[in-house]
Amino acid sequence: MSVTTEAKPSTATIGQYLLDRLHALGVEHIFGVPGDYILQFDKLIENHQINFINATRENTAGYMADAYARLRGLGVACITYGVGINITNAVAQGYVENSPFVVISGTASTEEFASCRYLHHMFGSHKGQLRDTTQMDIFQKMTVAQELLDNPLTAQTQIDRALDLCLTYKKPVYFEIPRNQVEQTIALAPAASVTRLDEDHEALAEVLEEVSEFLKRSERPVIWVGHEIQRHQLSGPILQFAEKYRIPIVSSILGKTTISEYHPLYMGIYQGVMSIEEVKEYVESADAIFVLGVALNEIETGMQTANLNAKQKVLASSERIKVNHHHYPRVSMHALVNGLASLDLNLRFRSDYPAYIDRRLPPFKAVNDKKTSVQRLFECLQGFLRAEHLIVCDFGDSLFGCSDLILEQDNFLSNPYFATLGFGIPAAIGAAQAVPQKRVVGVVGDGAFQMTCTELSTAVRYGLDPIIILLNNHGYATERPILEGTYNDILNWSYSKIPQILGGGKGHYARTEEEMEHAFQQAFQERGTFHLIEVELEQDDLSPALHRFSQAIKKSSS
Asked: CA 546 to CA 544: how far, in whole Å?
């Protein structure tokens, strides 16, 4: 481990130091809900360069911070103790999908715990204890660091350590601050920058030699990239490696848009039996495969149907490097990927792979008075998308329909692994704050919309202008083909009228293809306010991708 130091010692308060460190790491917005245990910290934010964005509830603040982190590298959510615990759904998602965001919770002071057995927002009696540990215990299961900032002598080290772990592992961390410690002064030591892994250069050379040898024997290699490549900003060297030797690329669904889908080497999403047949056939007949930054969970592998038959395999993630049967614990994914890009081999592979851009559909033409469908909705949407549009979608047919869109690099955001409903709208708000130079296009189902639609009021308050496309198929369409029942039905709202309630935004209702195309034209042309487009669909209308998913789910659960 190597350590470098910089800057001169000074003083700050615990709260001020935490905010300054976050700002130095690129954070310009904190998402949260105020509460009495966190008000002192909220007041500090009000007087800081960082902006506080009020969410309507803590869990949606977590989704906003999650989306912000995926796009900016670090996000922050701020809650009060106890009642703010509903943020855990967002934190759990961030943990399994590698989203580096910070949760800051206020709590009661030591004096308050000592003077009262039953404090509000706490989890029961605390007789004989100087603090409630319940919330810390809960977050321990879903964060890579948990720190109680109750000691001015150790606060700086605790903050630096937790943020270092957050950025290294791309997972959430948790800070708990007693309200009487926010303004406590600390003497700052020189900031330490820690390099966590001393690379084994001999082992790296051995890895690259092994890869070089099997590439020379290969005739049909393929690269499968996942979300960790995006999180660690390694798309560039992977593309350099692929272009040098003309190796085609597929992505996982969580890693969609790791590279531009207009790139001629890109074939599409590989997801086992859920893949398009020509992509599935090519990947599963490859004689060498590079699995880079892919989480090999059941969703990414198409309900465990991925068939990686290649004799030569490289498996690389933030947790392990494996080449065939050899493990390299002291070689990082960063070092391996950059090493691949630096290889200089006299190789050029054949180009008989099915390029994704070759599957582009002809321009959409609306049929007058024809009721629209899920497939036609996404065909229409494709024609409006440009490089400045960022797709943010919820789980369900919103996700599966969007998975077949052709998008530019880093223009897709979703949660296919944890698959919580209600992510889409708050994530669209977080994304709009993170990358204001892009126009966010949120795609959600009616079930997910009913869970978190109150965050459209946040769009009104802060002048954000996402386009929200609502697939109204009258219930939980993902579950219907698995096992139908009345539990999949929900009350049908007048969705397009919701902007009237909020006092901002514009609503559109589309039943036919012509109405849908007209609504899209208005929304994409007008900036400055959000547009909510309700598209009426048949209850049993599924995208081709969702149909493949449903069949895979039924087979795995039978």
From this structure: 6
